[in-house]
Write a structure and sequence with these properties.
Largest sheet: 8 strands, mixed
Strand content: 15-25%
Number of strands: 11
Structural class: alpha+beta
Order of helices and strands: HHEHEEHEEEEEHHEEEHH
Mean pLDDT: 83
Number of helices: 8
Strand order of the largest sheet: 2-3-1-5-4-9-10-11
Shape: globular
CATH topology of the largest domain: Alpha-Beta Plaits
Length: 337
């Protein structure tokens, strides 16, 4: 790192160092622990009762902690998602449930915004289509920071809500849903996009009216003809919208490549947590009971308000990460066996 002069190279090396240092630190700690065993055994056999008693206590403590150290090293060395540390594109869409689904989509998006704030990530709105009663029919945002995709990838799927809508006069509980997609946004995406494969349309973005309504055709819609993927951006600058839409298209094509590669792998791997299967209901938010249930790992928590505020979302994400780590470790052990 000290020999590097190019700024981009320094950043790349710093990130590589940050990834390798935890591994090196734990491996060194494990080697020191293993290296201390012969010395302690020699003290036990020295014939000095007091020294032997102290050494035996230290050896017992060492042997107790050794399996945890070995497991930690194994986890750090297990294969990881190549996009673990990448930033991400977050897409939240209203599903079944009409206006209530749009309101719930808005609640989910705000949950992720608040969670991002607690982790020091930057959220930038890419496009949004608001619901008639509030919330969003669709909202897309980029979340920039270290390890965003590694933590949020478990959020991809169908999220179901059970609650009494504000518009419900008789107090009946309604069930509606929203879908969440989290796509990795690596720094260097090598995707070949040919100009002849694109259809680019400009249009006037919708607004609330008055002085803030967009009076020019600045919004951009790009259609990738070979795949049918459509991306949009509707900020004030057409130039900025085109750049954002192209970036979003690259991310979607990259995610398509990831999914194709995942499909080619074994059924066992696709069944693991975080496989990206968005067709299944992954979580239920039950407001009358204050309950959150993640169906993939049969986790139920009764801290729904704090989860929706983003401050307790880690209570759901951490067990999912632990489950994923256990699955990766088991796969590694099976491979080594």
């Amino acid at each position: 790192m000290a020999a590097a002069t190019d700024g981009a190279e320094i950043v790349r090396l710093a990130k590589e160092h940050a990834e390798l240092k935890p591994v090196a630190d734990v491996v060194l700690k494990l080697e020191q622990a293993r290296g201390a065993i012969p010395d302690l055994q020699e003290m036990i056999d020295s014939g000095d009762p007091e020294l032997a008693e102290m050494a035996r206590a230290d050896l017992d403590q060492l042997n107790t902690g050794l399996p945890d150290l070995e497991r930690e090293v194994a986890l750090l060395l297990a294969p990881k998602d190549r996009d673990e540390n990448a930033s991400a594109i977050l897409e939240v869409r209203a599903g079944t449930g009409g206006d209530e689904a749009a309101l719930f989509a808005g609640d989910l998006f705000r949950m992720y915004q608040r969670y991002a704030q607690t982790r020091g990530w930057r959220v930038e709105l890419e496009s949004a289509s608001e619901g008639e009663m509030g919330g969003y029919k669709e909202v897309i945002a980029s979340i920039t920071g270290d390890g965003v995709f590694g933590r949020l990838k478990f959020e991809s799927g169908v999220h179901r809500v059970q609650r009494v809508p504000d518009t419900e006069a008789q107090g009946r509980i309604h069930t509606s849903a929203a879908t969440v997609a989290v796509l990795p946004e690596p720094e260097d995406i090598d995707i070949d996009i040919r100009d002849q494969d694109l259809r680019i349309d400009t249009y006037r973005s919708s607004g609330a009216g008055g002085q803030h309504v967009n009076k020019t055709d600045s919004a951009v819609r790009i259609t990738h003809l070979p795949t049918g993927i459509v991306v949009t951006s509707s900020e004030k600058s057409q130039h900025q919208n085109r750049a954002r839409a192209m970036k979003a298209l690259q991310v979607k094509l990259y995610d398509q490549q990831r999914e194709a590669a995942d499909t080619a792998r074994s059924d066992a791997r696709k069944a693991q947590v975080g496989s990206g299967d968005r067709s299944e209901r992954i979580r239920t938010y039950n407001f009358p009971q204050g309950r959150v249930t993640d169906h993939r790992i049969n986790l139920t928590l009764y801290n729904l308000p704090k989860v929706m505020e983003g401050e307790a979302l880690d209570d759901v994400i951490e067990p999912l990460i632990a489950e994923d780590q256990a699955a990766r470790l088991a796969a590694l052990e099976e491979e080594l066996a």
